[in-house]
């Protein structure tokens, strides 16, 4: 094989090796970028969950508070009536006994 052929083969091998090294470097950088983007996406999703609208939750809380307020008003009304008001079960028991 002539010397020019050997030189050409060596240059082709060096070029292919340089391209391979460059592609390996690009693959490593892309792997790092992929990992960083995964972390960013996880952070954005956690921010989305932390800042979601609270309107449905407030409706539930308002319903619970309304029920609590009604129960407290009923309790206050029964306390204001004093000892004259008897629970229904006690009145029925006394009626059965004849008292």
Q: Care to describe what's here?
A:
The termini are far apart. The chain has helices at residues 3-50, 55-81, 88-97. The chain contains 3 helices and no strands. Helix content is 86%, strand content 0%. The mean pLDDT is 86. The chain is mainly α and 99 residues long.
Approximately how much helix is present in the residues?
Answer: over 70%
Radius of gyration: 41 Å
Number of discrete helical segments:
3
Element order: H for helix, E for strand: HHH
Largest sheet: none
Report the portion of residues in β strands: under 5%
| End-to-end Cα distance | 129 Å
Keywords for this entry:
mainly alpha; 99 residues; 86% helix; 3 helices
Outline of this structure?
With 99 residues, this protein is an all-alpha fold.
Give the helices and strands, then pairings.
Layout (H helix, E strand, L loop, with lengths): L2 H48 L4 H27 L6 H10 L2
